Amino acid sequence: MKYKISNNVIRRLPRYIRFLELLEASGAVRVSSKELGELMGLTASQIRQDFNCFGGFGQQGYGYNVQQLSEAMSEIMGISHERKAIVIGAGNLGKALIANFKFKKYGYTLTAAFDVCPELVGKKFSRTPVYHIDKLEEYLMKNKVDVAALTLPGETASGVVTRLINSGVPGIWNFTRLEFPATFGPARVENVHFADSLLVLSYALKEKEKEEGGEA
Amino acid sequence: MKYKISNNVIRRLPRYIRFLELLEASGAVRVSSKELGELMGLTASQIRQDFNCFGGFGQQGYGYNVQQLSEAMSEIMGISHERKAIVIGAGNLGKALIANFKFKKYGYTLTAAFDVCPELVGKKFSRTPVYHIDKLEEYLMKNKVDVAALTLPGETASGVVTRLINSGVPGIWNFTRLEFPATFGPARVENVHFADSLLVLSYALKEKEKEEGGEA
DNA sequence: TAGATTGTTAATCGATTAACAATC
DNA sequence: TAGATTGTTAATCGATTAACAATC
User: Fold this and answer.
1) CA distance linking residue B201 with residue B149, whole number of Å
2) Residue A162, CB, less than 7 Å from strand C?
3) What is the mean pLDDT of residues A62-69?
4) What is the rounded average pLDDT for all residues in chain B?
5) Most buried residue, A4, A22, A33, B159, by CB count within 10 Å?
6) Which domains does chain B show, CATH number per domain?
7) What DSSP string runs through A41-77?
8) Closest nucleotide to residue A31 (Cα to C1')?
9) How many Å apart are CA A106 and CA B137, to the nearest integer?
10) Residue A215's pLDDT is what?
């Protein structure tokens, strides 16, 4: 169970969790790798290989217990670590995270937001207080923070990342147009680039149009 | 130049574009696969292989012209198709897209937003009018739409997708908690799941902690 | 020309799929 | 027990890397 798990596998795990929760919600108690594969568009073989990176969750002749498997996957992703998050930048995207993102569901408590805008500082959104970004170090000194979500303009992001790392924040969830390396000094970074996915969609549309043009 | 390009390559292209634009902005005129590889954390070999899926953009002994290459990549992604987009759901995330996302930069014009909320319907955000979702079919009848961004609650997303597809919208940019297949009937779908990336970050943090624990 | 770097072929590596014995 | 389905090994496939001749 303990060597290096490939990145491909890791990135499939959250997807497994989502589908398993869906199954759970629909009342399914057990699922076979074949059924799950059909649902998710994967081969049964791949699913079994993926799961067996972490040990045997199934039972021959039966399949997998949906709830048990779902919990095991969540556990592997570290959902029970009781982590703390902050949001930096309380613009629309920051507010979207504050108001709608289910931090709790993924093991996080959102403890604060930061912004420069005087109209926002001092307010609360969905019970999350907004502090001035100048108070960042002070806050980090007093409060453990595992992940900072960057929802601020790209121009200012670079400096903020330096400050976060200097204050020992280990996780950066980056929504800005900048990209930081996955391992950035002592920190771990996840970059989310909306534009990338829109471009991939554009490409798919182009391909589709070509196919249709070709057929006609 | 014309067979099937692998998904891995396609998903790397937007990233190439981003780094090339960065280089361009920094005033670089030429770049070698070696330099670009060091910048992006890829091998020079892989970069040359990727580019050569689409034909020879470089020049032996010289490298690649940054601007030319960047434009060629953008072109491959179909950036010049002059596409139209709408946003469905004008909550925080919808507003974030409307206000901050550079649709133009990626070849899109954002033409409308839709919502159910009476406080929003009839208003404009950053020059984008918000219509009632009941008017969706009417709007789609009169206006070509290539991509609909779904920034509404998951509960209502499924029905909206059916309506979009019935009205012939070919592209779905899905930000809800639901997941649709990449090819969903005649439509092409890109799913964006914030939670997936946060979980991957959680996993990375867990690994980091384990390493540090191990060393100590 | 000599040096650099591409485009491209060949080699390697890793990931996915297939197969099947183990076993519930 | 017979049937189903896992866990796991072996085979295949595809993606990445290495190598090098072509050429700017």
Assistant:
1) 25
2) no
3) 96
4) 95
5) A33
6) 7-76 (1.10.10.10), 83-195 (3.40.50.720)
7) T--HHHHHHHHHTS---EETTTEEEHHHHHHHHHHHT
8) D5
9) 37
10) 58
Query: Nearest C-alpha of chain B: how many angstroms from A74?
Result: 9
Structure token digits, residue A62: 């039966």
Cβ of residue A34 lies below 7 Å from strand D: yes
B164-189 b/e (C-beta count within 10 Å ≥ 16 → b): bbeeebbbbbbbbbbbbebeeeebbb
Query: Which of A17, A92, A173 is closest, CB to CB, to B95?
Result: A92
SS3 track for B155-209: HHHHHHHHHHHHCCCCEEEECCCCCCCCEECCEEEEECCHHHHHHHHHHHHHHHH
Residue B103 and residue B96 in contact, taking contact as beta carbons nearer than 8 Å: no
Please give the backbone phi and psi of residue B144, each rounded to the nearest 5 degrees, phi first.
-70, 130
3 state SS of B88: strand
Q: What is the pLDDT of residue B215?
A: 58
Burial of A17 from C-beta contacts in 10 A (0-12 / 13-18 / 19+):
buried
Residue-wise pLDDT tens digits, B107-165: 999 999 999 999 999 999 999 999 999 999 999 999 999 999 999 999 999 999 999 99
- Look at residue A2 in the predicted model and tell me its pLDDT: 47
Residue written as token pair 């093991």: A107
The residues pairing with B85 across neighbouring beta strands, listed in sequence order, are B110, B147
Distances, alpha carbon A9 to alpha carbons A5, A209, B128, B168, in Å:
7, 32, 41, 35
Is 80 exceeded by the pLDDT of residue B2? no
Take residue B17 and report the two structure tokens written for it. 């574009």
State the sign of the Cα–Cα–Cα–Cα dihedral B47, B50, B53, B55.
negative
Give exposure, A163-202, as e/b (b: 16+ Cβ within 10 Å). bbbeeebbbbbbbbbbbbebeeeebbbbbbbbbbbbbbbb
Confidence of residue A150 (pLDDT cuts 50, 70, 90): very high
CB neighbourhood size of B158 (10 A): 12
Q: Is the pLDDT of residue B3 over 80?
A: no
The angle that helices B33-40 and B44-52 make with each other, rounded to 10 degrees, is 110
Q: What is the pLDDT of residue B4?
A: 87
pLDDT tens digit sequence for B181-206: 999 999 999 999 999 999 999 999 99
Q: Nearest-CA residue of chain A relative to B89?
A: A96
A56 or B172, which is more confident:
B172
- The closest alpha carbon to A112, from A91, A127, A92, belongs to A127
Structure tokens at B62: 């010289």
> pTM of this prediction?
0.96
CB contact under 8 A, A11 and B195: no
